[in-house]
Amino acid sequence: MKRVGWSIAYMCVGMVLSWQSALWISRLSQRLSWPLFMTRWRGCWDIEHCDVSAFRYAFIAAFIFAPTIIWAMAGFRTANSTAPRIGTALLLALGTVSFYMIFYAAIWR
């Protein structure tokens, strides 16, 4: 039961941090000249107005859910650990913010 509790707690923190990271970096992208480097991932990502391939749908789903799932798995693994949880949480927070920053730097227009 302890593992489930920590997993849910980490998952909630992961959801909030993912949402806020995407929101803050989206606002930042409106002020900067993005993309910062050229990639082949250009094109239309708007699901309503463009023909989006299955690969792009999978990428969009991963963009939304992957950080939260990783947070939940980390909470499950650290539930019975004696290691400090704050270090794990800080590392995950840095990874989540970096994930969204790299996405916007590489793809967003």
UniProtKB/TrEMBL annotation:
Bilayer-spanning residue ranges: 7-26, 55-74, 86-107
Alphabetical keyword list: Membrane, Transmembrane, Transmembrane helix
Name used for this protein in its record: Uncharacterized protein
Organism of this sequence: Paraburkholderia phenoliruptrix
